[in-house]
Each structure stands twice: as structure tokens, then as C-alpha cells.
Amino acid sequence: MIEVKKVSKEFEKEIDNKKKIKFLADKNISFEVKDGEILGLLGPNGAGKTTLLRIIAGIMKPTSGEVFIDKKDLNKEDIEIKKTISFLSGNTKLYKDISCVELLKMCAAYYDMDKKSINERIDEVVNRFDMKQFKNQRIGSLSTGQTQRVGVARCVLHNPHNYILDEATSGLDIISSQVILDFIKEERDKGKCIIYSTHYMEEAENICDRVVLINKGEIIAIGTPQEIEKDTNTTNIRDAFFKLIGGNYNEME
């Protein structure tokens, strides 16, 4: 279970004449994600999604507020908690000059996995993400879809309980996307706790049990897609979002 309680994050930026101003990327964000649930985090570029995910993953500290993972305070027990987390960032780069298997072995060492079970677990992950044909290829020679599958594989190698996934299917073809989406649903059905951030609202509507709509650093709606659509008198989550922000498509820029 993941609990986010009144989280805010302040940054400083430079504007005209080198004047610096402070702004909040996330403002007083609160929600919880239950075990056996996929919670979608949806919003436009600049809405504060990635900053929030980095805070939940323990990569970034909030200016205020708290994050609890499995009832443990992330600020106080971060090392132990991070062992239970899979964090997939949308802009993570992989080493280009090593093979997929070499990368997975390196990640297994990072997580201090049992040496006797590493090869078996790598085989499981390679099979699950249909990586057999390219597992020994240099990562720099792979297609976008293959590289993304390797990226997901390295994040799930240690069999985490909590998933924080940022744009897991961005730019992928339909086959590669489906491999990843099927895996996410399988993990949900095993009782895992999953936060899934995406720009693809139709995808989120299909895969997520509940969604959080975020705009300009603030939550504008939270609930099941059906609940939000009913409250906004719309038939899909995309139209619901636009109605909640006043129908201004420029808000998506």
C-alpha cells in the first residue's frame, strides 16, 4: 500500500532579468493506492506527475508532506523501502555497450539478490517479456520497443511489491505495449500495488482501477473512470479531463 499525504514540492526558476521566483510543482497532493490495485496518474506535460513519482520513489524529497509505503515512513526507512519498489522513469537511459543479460546481472547485484537464483530469475523475466531472440545483443543495437522491454525487465527483476511506472509504453508499437500492459495487469492480480502514469488516457481507462487527474500540480479529480465520467457527464476520461479544466485545449500544452 502506498499513501501520499499532503505532499508539496517547491522549486525556484529564473525569469526575466535573471529574477528568481519560487513555484510549486505539486500542491498538497493526497491519495492512497491499495494492494491489488492499479492507480492511474493522468495529466498533461508539466502537470507535476514525474516530480510526484520521484518523491514517491524516494529519489526526491518533498518540501512538505509525507509518503508511507506499506505503513513505513519513506523519510525514515528509505533503504529498506526501496528494496520493495520498482521505479520506471520515462527518460531512463540504458548502457548501450552491454547485452541485455549483462545489464540484468548488474541490476541483480545492485539489489543484492541471492546468487543461486539470479540466473533462474533472469530466465523468467527474459521469457515473460519475450526477449529470447535479443537477450545477448548489445542494447545499443535494439529497437525502441525491445529497449523498453529491457528497461521494464531490469525494474522487475527483484520481484518488487510496489510499482511506480512513468510512461511505460510511451512510443511503443502495439505488440510491445501489450506485452507490458499484460504484465502490469498480472502483477495487479497477484496483489501488487501499482501507480501507472501515462499520457494515453484511453490506455489508462482500460487498465486502471482508479485514476487521479492532475493539472498544474493539483488534483482535479480522483475515482474510477466510470465515477469521474458520471460526475462530469461525459463518456470517456479524456473528455472528462477537458471538462474539468473548462474545455480549454491549451491547458494540455
Question: In a nutshell, what does this entry contain?
Answer:
The protein is of the alpha/beta class. The chain contains 9 helices and 10 strands.
Q: How would you characterize the overall build of this protein?
A:
With 253 residues, the chain is α/β, with parallel strands linked by helices. It contains 9 helices and 10 strands. It has helices at 49-56, 78-82, 100-110, 115-128, 144-156, 174-189, 201-207, 225-232, 237-244; strands at 2-14, 20-33, 37-42, 64-69, 72-73, 85-88, 162-166, 193-198, 210-215, 218-223. Strands 6-7-8-3-9-10 form a 6-stranded mixed beta sheet, with helices on both faces. The longest helix is centred in the last third of the chain and has 16 residues, at 174-189. It is globular.
List keywords for this structure.
253 residues; alpha/beta; 6-stranded mixed beta sheet; globular; disordered C terminus
Helix content: 25-40%
What average pLDDT do the residues reach? Answer: 87
Order of helices and strands: EEEHEEHEHHHEHEHEEHH
- Give the uncertain stretches in residue-range form: 249-253
N- and C-termini, Cα separation = 33 Å
| Count of DSSP strands | 10
Largest sheet entry: 6 strands, mixed
Q: What is the strand content?
A: 25-35%
What class would the helix/strand composition place it in? alpha/beta
- Which strand order do you get reading across the main beta sheet? 6-7-8-3-9-10
* Cα Rg: 19 Å
Count of individual helical segments:
9
Broad shape:
globular
